[in-house]
TrEMBL record:
Stretches assigned to the PEGA domain: 31-85, 123-183
Top-rank lineage group of the source organism: Bacteria
Keywords for this protein: Signal
Name of the protein this chain belongs to: Uncharacterized protein
Pfam families recorded: PEGA, SH3_3
Residues of the SH3b domain: 236-284
Transmembrane segments: none
Keyword Signal part of the UniProt annotation: yes
């Protein structure tokens, strides 16, 4: 299939405590933008139309809702944590089809080590490819303490989704947190290639319908692996190999427990069905001995 590769360009300008925030280190700020222009509500309190800028707020977690006047567009709603001395940036592109909507939240978290700098990239969907300044560095969720302070370009790509490019600065003494949602790309289907009678038959199809959720009192002998909450609708992919690729063989549910076999390179091998083994990312799975 042929995928459209529209690049969404995001430029962040975050002000840190000790730089130029007018509300001091004990208060927080938020900047909210949307396309098209939309109404903003914070904990059900109206903040007016975008763009919205609020400062002098009490740090904490708030529920933010962005609603366009065009009722055919799906509103966005989510919880955003505002940290002291930091301006958190929220930007959303609304769409009638939620899969076509995209956006991001950018913020900083203070580190104990004032000379260190960290980056934490989270995305939906998960396991999105990450490049920093054009160099591949891994997949989301991506965490690093080796990205030097200064301006950087973060590129998020995944098959079937539009690319997202985020330009943001990494600051000493802080962790840059980027939470991005990618939009699905427009797909133009292509006819399957013609095959001759001598061509090999296609392999068996894989059913990736989520497995039934286990009963809450289901008992699994130790050691076992428990599936943790994920950004992917509380489902976790099971793979035939301990690596990202076109190797998904099943989907399991948050909270379910499975017999454990071994751990390798950040992956746990489990028995997801009787007689069937697969690998799950240790990022979203906990080994219980």
């Amino acid at each position: 299939m042929k995928l459209g590769r529209l690049i969404v360009l995001v430029t962040s300008s975050l002000l840190l405590a000790g730089c130029s925030l007018p509300f001091g280190q004990k208060k927080a700020g938020v900047q909210i933008t949307a396309n098209p222009q939309a109404s903003v509500f914070m904990d059900d309190k109206s903040l007016g139309q975008t763009p919205v800028y609020q400062n002098g707020l009490k740090p904490g977690t708030y529920n933010i809702k962005i609603t366009a006047s065009d009722t055919t567009l799906t509103p966005w709603e989510g919880k955003v944590t505002l940290n002291p001395g930091v301006l958190t940036v929220v930007d959303r592109q609304l769409a009638s089809d939620p899969t076509k909507a995209h956006g991001y939240t950018l913020s900083f978290e203070a580190l104990t080590n004032k000379t260190a700098a960290e980056v934490n990239l989270i995305s939906f969907p998960d396991t999105v490819s990450v490049m920093v300044d054009g160099a591949p560095v891994g997949f989301t969720p991506f965490k690093s303490d080796s990205v030097v302070s200064g301006a950087h370009t973060f590129t998020l790509t995944s098959p079937g989704y539009q690319d997202m490019v985020v330009k943001a600065s990494v600051q000493s003494g802080h962790r840059l947190v980027v939470n991005a949602q990618l939009a699905m790309a427009n797909v133009t289907p292509t006819p399957p290639p013609l095959t001759s009678p001598s061509a090999s038959a296609p392999g068996p199809s894989v059913d990736i319908t989520p497995l039934p959720k286990q009963a809450t009192d289901a008992a699994v002998l130790k050691p076992y692996v428990e599936i943790l909450p994920t950004p992917d609708n509380n489902h976790l992919k099971v793979r035939s190999e301990n690596a990202i690729g076109n190797n998904i063989i099943a989907i399991v549910n948050t909270g379910d427990k499975f017999p454990y076999f071994k751990t390798q390179d950040g992956w746990h091998q489990i028995e997801y069905q009787t007689g069937n083994k697969g690998w799950v990312s240790a990022t979203y799975a906990r080994l219980v001995n």
